Amino acid sequence: MSKERADTSWSPYVAGVLAGVVIVGSVYTMSRMTGKADNSLETGRAYACAAGAIEQKLWPAHAEKLVIAEKADARALCSLLLAFGLLAGAFAGALMGHSFEREGVPRTWSECVGANPLWRGFCAFCGGVAVMFGVRLSGGGLIDHGLIGVMCLSLSGWVATASFFMAGCLVARSIYRK
Prior knowledge:
Layout: H1 3-8, H2 12-34, H3 44-58, H4 60-65, H5 74-96, H6 107-112, H7 117-138, H8 142-151, H9 155-175
Helix pairs in contact: 2-5, 3-5, 8-9
């Protein structure tokens, strides 16, 4: 890590406390908006709801037949706000930490896989589809199981989080063999 980047990094303690405050605030806000105390955070619902809304507009007859179609409700709105908040927060953090860099293909990827931006985009898209399938299959992702489940000392949260990290290590190892 360079000297400049080390000086602009957040303290892990401050970042951890702020993440906890944001999570508790988000769960509280979502519970107030939906009127249910048992809601949890997930961004997968936002994408499924957006896809359902697009399908409802383009192919309404087909969308009505789908059992899995997500309906737009307060919980879906919270998920959508969370998804946009994560993107905005990551962008703001990179700008504030002076670590924002525009690059088409990261150096590590180009050294191991190649510098073709179309191939990188295709792989990123396929990875996103695989992750979204897993999130929907398991009923939540890293936010739902990893952050909230672990904070609540849920066994399923710990198992899911360990599985996420093991799968991530295996995939990274297979891509970045060098």
